[in-house]
């Protein structure tokens, strides 16, 4: 029963991810465990501006280097089964976590005279940025194609986000089909337990009215930051162990 419940939760409801890098600081710190909602996308819900989302590498964002396993075939098989159902962490996933800044049809640009990111011409206040980080140290301008997202890390100086992949198909955007789910809670460590809210400066922006089309852009020639993929966490803190207990009255 524990294996069945764990598999159902991991596949359809909630998945736990361990944060291995500082690309989302100060919002999410290294070692935090975040809960990712995988249920609402099944009902047609799409990520909105300001959401923190986990997504599959769209291609070329992660190097994907993994150390060869030293386990024997039996141990390797057992670990694969437990990892598949979510009872052991996995380091083979190619997932990343970023904040949605622009959705399909949006024009995202940086920077204005005050050094801010703007969405559809409206400057965005970003209180979630890491201390002493500007919105971006490189200029860019892109119109997000329909069915895709423009994503950025909160720690802009170390985040290998959409800005650094504008030469890829989609001009650095990621497909909606690659989104695993929305991170909605930091569950561990307990002193940092809190819900991840959408910042009003992004969620209150009106939808874009401009017709889809290519927008010229420019990107600075800074080195590409590197970051490891997310690690699928252990569902150990969830009530997955089902026991049959006798009940006595007296």
Structural features:
250 residues, alpha+beta, nine-stranded antiparallel β-sheet, four-stranded antiparallel β-sheet
What is the percentage of strand-forming residues?
A: 15-25%
Count of individual helical segments = 3
Overall morphology: globular
Order of helices and strands: HEEEHEEEEEEEEEHE
Distance between the termini: 30 Å
Low-confidence stretches: 85-89, 236-250
Helical coverage, percent range: 10-25%
Mean pLDDT score, rounded? 77
Tell me the Rg in angstroms.
Answer: 20 Å
Structure in words:
This protein has 3 helices and 13 strands, in the order H-E-E-E-H-E-E-E-E-E-E-E-E-E-H-E. The model is unreliable at 85-89 and 236-250 (pLDDT under 50). The chain is an alpha+beta fold and 250 residues long. The protein has helices spanning 2-13, 73-85, 200-203, and strands spanning 14-18, 33-37, 52-56, 95-102, 107-110, 117-119, 122-123, 140-143, 148-152, 174-175, 179-188, 194-195, 231-232. Strands 1, 2, 3, 4, 9, 10, 11, 12 and 13 form a 9-stranded antiparallel beta sheet that branches. Strands 7-6-5-8 form a 4-stranded antiparallel beta sheet, with no helix packed on it.
């Amino acid at each position: 029963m524990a294996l069945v419940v764990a598999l159902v939760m991991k596949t359809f409801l909630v998945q736990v991810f361990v944060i291995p890098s500082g690309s989302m600081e100060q919002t999410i710190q290294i070692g935090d465990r975040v809960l990712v909602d995988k249920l609402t996308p099944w009902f047609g819900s799409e990520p909105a501006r300001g959401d923190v989302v986990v997504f599959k590498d769209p291609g070329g964002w992660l190097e994907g280097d993994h150390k060869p396993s030293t386990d024997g075939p039996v141990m390797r098989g057992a670990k694969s089964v437990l990892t598949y159902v979510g009872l052991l962490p996995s380091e083979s996933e190619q997932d990343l976590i970023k904040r949605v800044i622009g959705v399909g049809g949006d024009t995202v640009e940086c920077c204005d005279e005050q050094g801010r990111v703007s969405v559809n011409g409206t400057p965005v206040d970003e209180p979630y940025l890491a201390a002493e980080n500007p919105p971006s140290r490189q200029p860019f301008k892109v119109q997000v194609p329909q069915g895709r997202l423009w994503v950025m890390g909160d720690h802009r100086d170390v985040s290998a986000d959409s800005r650094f992949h504008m030469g890829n198909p989609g001009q650095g955007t990621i497909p909606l089909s690659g989104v695993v789910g929305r991170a909605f809670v930091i569950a561990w460590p307990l002193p940092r337990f809190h819900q991840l809210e959408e910042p009003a400066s992004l969620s209150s922006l009106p939808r874009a009215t401009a017709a889809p089309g290519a927008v010229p852009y420019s990107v600075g020639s800074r080195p590409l930051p590197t970051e490891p993929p997310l690690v699928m966490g252990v569902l150990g803190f969830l009530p997955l162990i089902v026991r049959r207990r006798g009940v006595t009255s007296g």
